[in-house]
From TrEMBL, chain A:
A biological-process GO annotation: protein transport
Start and end residues of each Tim10-like domain: 17-76
Protein name: Mitochondrial import inner membrane translocase subunit
Gene: LOC101385986
Membrane topology recorded in Swiss-Prot or TrEMBL: Peripheral membrane protein
Principal subcellular localization: mitochondrion
Family: Belongs to the small Tim family.
Keywords for the protein's UniProt record, in alphabetical order: Chaperone, Disulfide bond, Membrane, Metal-binding, Mitochondrion, Mitochondrion inner membrane, Protein transport, Translocation, Transport, Zinc
TrEMBL record, chain B:
A Gene Ontology term for the protein's cellular component: mitochondrial inner membrane
Function: Probable mitochondrial intermembrane chaperone that participates in the import and insertion of some multi-pass transmembrane proteins into the mitochondrial inner membrane. Also required for the transfer of beta-barrel precursors from the TOM complex to the sorting and assembly machinery (SAM complex) of the outer membrane. Acts as a chaperone-like protein that protects the hydrophobic precursors from aggregation and guide them through the mitochondrial intermembrane space. Mitochondrial intermembrane chaperone that participates in the import and insertion of some multi-pass transmembrane proteins into the mitochondrial inner membrane. Also required for the transfer of beta-barrel precursors from the TOM complex to the sorting and assembly machinery (SAM complex) of the outer membrane. Acts as a chaperone-like protein that protects the hydrophobic precursors from aggregation and guide them through the mitochondrial intermembrane space.
Organism field: Odobenus rosmarus divergens (Pacific walrus)
Compartments where located: Mitochondrion inner membrane
Similarity comment: Belongs to the small Tim family.
Entry's free-text remark on domains: The twin CX3C motif contains 4 conserved Cys residues that form 2 disulfide bonds in the mitochondrial intermembrane space.
Protein name, UniProt field: Mitochondrial import inner membrane translocase subunit
Keyword flag Transcription: no
The encoding gene: TIMM8B
Lineage, broadest ranks: Eukaryota, Metazoa, Chordata, Craniata, Vertebrata
The keyword Chaperone is assigned to this record: yes
Topology of this chain in the membrane: Peripheral membrane protein
Keywords: Chaperone, Disulfide bond, Membrane, Metal-binding, Mitochondrion, Mitochondrion inner membrane, Protein transport, Translocation, Transport, Zinc
GO molecular function per UniProt: metal ion binding
Highest taxon of source: Eukaryota
Residue ranges annotated for the Tim10-like domain, each copy included: 16-76
């Protein structure tokens, strides 16, 4: 493999880091898409009406709240179990 | 492994990229199929009636809209969280 100079090496690391972030973001998005599509879209119509848009926006927020609540409760249980 | 000349290397990269695109397209189609079958096809009948066909067509469009809405909301949250 070709040897990279310091500046090119740094640039490469930066690009790899950026791609990794993009991949993480996309991967995190996937569960939201599936779950919120299920909850909010009954029958696909001609466009997303405002009720559906609000539902999708709330869905993201509530799913994050749910994750926090469940994580918190589960952590409690695990800690108690450890004693 | 045999050493490829520059022209062959470029051609090879192009072929790999084309195959990756085809694979991505197929995976995306498969994903749409599952989601839109669930939403639009109640009980399979003798043929796809026009209501079902419209639903399937709208389904692809609305799922893309949904992806944009959720990506946008999620990006907002990530940005706020980063500050």
């Amino acid at each position: 493999m070709v040897e990279l100079g310091e500046a090119d090496e740094a640039e490469l690391q930066h690009l790899v880091g950026a791609e990794r972030q993009k991949a993480q973001f996309t991967a995190q998005l996937h569960p939201f898409l599936e779950l919120c599509w299920d909850k909010c879209v009954e029958k696909p119509g001609n466009r997303l009406d405002s009720r559906t848009e609000n539902c999708l926006s709330s869905c993201v927020d509530r799913f994050i709240d749910t994750t926090l609540a469940i994580t918190s409760r589960f952590a409690q249980i695990v800690q108690k179990g450890g004693q």
